[in-house]
Amino acid sequence: MNFDLILGYHSIYHALNNSKRNQIELFATQEGFQKFQSKYQKRIDFISLKKDELIKKFIGFSNEKGLKNSKLQGEIFLKTNSIEEYGNGYLYKLLEKEKSFKFLALDRVTDIHNAAAILRTSAFYNLDGLIIGQKASFNYTPSFFKISSGAFEYIPIIRTPNLAKTLKTISSKGVVTIGLSEEVENKEIEIKNSWCVVMGSEELGLSHAVERSLDQHIALKSYGEIKSLNVSTAAAIALEKFTYSESN
User: Fold this and answer.
1) Of 44, 61, 81, which residue constitutes the final position of a domain?
2) Are residues 176 and 102 in the same domain?
3) How many domains does the chain have?
4) Residue 187 has pLDDT above 80, yes or no
5) Which one of 18, 50, 81 terminates a domain?
6) For residue 215, what pLDDT is reported?
7) What is the predicted pLDDT for the residue at 243?
8) Got the DSSP string for the chain?
C-alpha cells in the first residue's frame, strides 16, 4: 500500500475527516495525543509510544518511503493510505459542468514549502483545483502536509504531462488563463466567470511554452523599490485581487 505520513494537528485532523483516507494508524505519545484531543475533541484510537519509540517508528516509515532526512515534528503523526492525483480527464470532465471555475496553475514550482503554502491559500479561497505540470513536481513529504495545514484533503491536485497544452485546452473551454509576471506593464484585467491564475518559479518565472499559451498577463503593482515577491505570497495577493473583483 502506498501511504502518506502526516504531521501537524490541523493536517492530521482534516485527514482523519476525509472519507478517502480509509486506512489510518495514529501514533503519538500520551502528551501528544492529549494536546491533539484538547484542540479538536475527536475520539479516535491511537498507538501510544514513548517519545524515543515514536521517533524510531517515524524514521522507519520515512525510510520505507525513501524520504531522506525526514524529522518528526511534535509528538504525533498519522500514517494513512495515499490519495491519487487527478489528471486531465478529471479536469476536462469537470469543465463540462455549467458553473464558473477558479484554478491556480504552477509552472516549474518545485519547492515544497512554496507549493504547500500555495495549496493552503487555494483552500482558503475555495479553488476548484491546483494544476501542476511535470516540471512542477514535488514530493508529498510529512513537511508538505504540515505546511499545507489540511488543504490537501480539499483541493484536487491535477497533474498534467503538458501544462502549456492543458492551459490552451481549458482556455478553449471558457477558462481565461492569466499569467503573473513582474516583466509586463499591465496591472489590471477584466475578471471573467472562469479563470486560472498561472504562477512561475521565483528563479525562472514562466516557461516560454506556458507564456505563449496564456490569454493574458498581469503584474502585481509594487508600491516600493522591491518589485518581486515570494511566489506563495504573490499567489495569495493575486487570489485576493481576483476574488474581490469577482464579488464586486
Assistant:
1) 81
2) yes
3) 2
4) no
5) 81
6) 93
7) 80
8) --EEEE-SHHHHHHHHT-TT--SEEEEE-HHHHHHHHHHH------EE--HHHHHHHHHHHHHHHT-TT----SSEEEEEE--PPB-HHHHHHHTTSSS--EEEEEES---HHHHHHHHHHHHHTT-SEEEEEGGG-----HHHHHHHTTGGGTS-EEEES-HHHHHHHHHHTTPEEEEE-TT------PPPSSEEEEEEBTTTBS-HHHHHH-SEEE-PPPSSS-----HHHHHHHHHHHHHHHHT-
